[in-house]
Amino acid sequence: MSKLIGIGVGPGDPELLTLKAIRVLEKLDILLLPTGRSGGESEAYHICKEYIPELVSLEKRYFPMTNDKDMMMAAIAEIAGEVKSWTLSGKTVGFVTLGDPMLYSTYGYLLKLLRDEIEVETIPGITSFGAIASGFNKQLCEGDTPLVIYPCVDDLKELDELLSTQKSMVLMKVYKSFERVKALIVAHHLEDDCLIVSNFGKASQKVYYGLEEVNIEELSYFTTILINKEV
Amino acid sequence: MSKLIGIGVGPGDPELLTLKAIRVLEKLDILLLPTGRSGGESEAYHICKEYIPELVSLEKRYFPMTNDKDMMMAAIAEIAGEVKSWTLSGKTVGFVTLGDPMLYSTYGYLLKLLRDEIEVETIPGITSFGAIASGFNKQLCEGDTPLVIYPCVDDLKELDELLSTQKSMVLMKVYKSFERVKALIVAHHLEDDCLIVSNFGKASQKVYYGLEEVNIEELSYFTTILINKEV
Q: Which residues form the signal peptide (chains A, B) (predicted)?
């Protein structure tokens, strides 16, 4: 029954783990812990560590968060090779991921390299934007309105058009791009339809109900803006 | 501590309940069960019933699923009145919802009527599309690609444009509109990028890897199409 299991652990609160995630964590041989900085800590591990048996072998690996896709894919390919050899030697290997594993997660790249090579199972997780919407009693979308999830990690080339045509949006990873995102939101007169949350569910959480309040020094990589013109 | 608690129970598998949902279910006085047909069963209840103590009072209410918004809002306003009177008499009232409560759920309308009147707490749930993506090891989106969630419940007026400009989409509630959706997918040559799932996670689940295989008689209201041009 050796395989790779990708496990979504949700955005921060251990109570948002699913029963399935917990059952699976308890039967692992090896847990691969992704870190975004060399020598850094795995945030996903901190969310679920109380459910990981002591006998599970923890293997921390550095997944570079970089715009250099070749460098990133080379690092992931090397880790995929390790995962493959572990599973072929009979081990069940877990990979924990913040939020949901199928939504902008490094796990997706690992999955593509391995799903035709070894058995892979994936456990979904609560998304950051879903948890924020519930946490603030603010609907993401209703009726026949589409919901657009937009990662603010690159050139934002479509964001202007989407802000003008869409009613319900989630802007994820608003961090380095905050000033440009802010300018677009102001241009579309959406200042009053925004909820801005940095590090949701963590001790360092910051919430802003308007753009002018934002202290850019406090914004983390995990900054999310919910926009809903209808509610 | 009386309040309304909206509880996402996920798409079908009880193992996809969160620890928080289970903890909250165990402390309710009243559980409001939405049904989509008069006299029908609550699917959300079946997912979580093993965690509901016997002493919890079950109150089934009919939430009409209709395009007549006035009729729908009148029914919801009446139920909101009941919830308000229960909470004012000291009861903790739960409302279970399939998937996530903030994403196309009737709960959203109830929430809007009550959140300024009584205390309301909301617990997020695993979405159907997140669970389907994990269940089939198919990424929803990656990198800087937006993800568009599109409910196929109305005139599909934006769908043509979105299918031409977007790489990653989730089409929800593809049911009455299947033939029109199919024609648009074929027009955009996306047949091979589709995964079609009806009643995910239930005994009646059907999976199709192409449009031509679909037996329209088998499609349920809960039919989802994942489109990803990149993976």
A: none
Query: What is the distance between the terminal CA atoms of chain B, rounded to a whole angstrom?
Result: 48
Q: Considering only CA atoms, which of B162, B114, B134 is closest in space to residue B6?
A: B114
- The answer to whether domain B4-123 and domain B128-228 are alike in fold is no
Provide CATH code, domain A128-228: 3.30.950.10
Which residues sit opposite A33 in a β-bridge? A60
- Which residue, among A3, A7, A15, A18, would best test binding to B if mutated, counting the most B CBs under 10 Å from its CB? A18
Q: Cα–Cα distances in Å, from A46 out to A11, A126, B106? A: 11, 16, 34
Q: How confident is the model at residue A86 (pLDDT cuts 50, 70, 90)?
A: very high
The residue of chain B nearest to residue A123, with distances taken between CA atoms, is: B134
Within chain B, which residues score under 50 in pLDDT?
A: none
Question: How close does chain A come to B183, measured CA to CA in Å?
Answer: 20
Q: A4-123 falls under which CATH superfamily?
A: Tetrapyrrole methylase, N-terminal domain (3.40.1010.10)
Inter-chain residue contact B137 with A158, CB threshold 8 Å: no
Which of B17, B18, B127 to probe the A interface (max A CBs under 10 A)?
A: B18
> DSSP letter string over A27-56?
T-SEEEEEESSTT---HHHHHHGGGS-TTS
Over residues B70-129, the pLDDT tens digits come to 888 999 999 999 999 999 999 999 999 999 999 999 999 999 999 999 999 999 999 999
The tokens of A187 are what? 């241009």
Region of residue A137 (left: phi > 0; alpha: psi -120 to 50; beta: else): left
Query: Domain map of chain A by residue range?
Result: 4-123, 128-228
What confidence tens digit (pLDDT) does each residue in A3-56 have? 999 999 999 999 999 999 999 999 999 999 988 776 667 889 999 999 999 999
8 Å CB contact of B124 and A122: no
- Give residue A221's region: left, alpha or beta (phi > 0; psi -120 to 50): alpha
- The pLDDT confidence band at residue A148, using thresholds 50, 70 and 90, is very high
- Locate the chain A residue with the closest alpha carbon to B105: A142
Write out B14-61 in H/E/C secondary structure.
Answer: HHHCEHHHHHHHCCCCEEEEEECCCCCCCHHHHHHHHHCCCCCEEEEE
Residue among B229, B32, B223, B196 nearest B111 (CA): B32
CA distance A181 to A101: 26
Cβ contacts of A137 on chain B, cutoff 8 Å: 111, 115, 120, 122
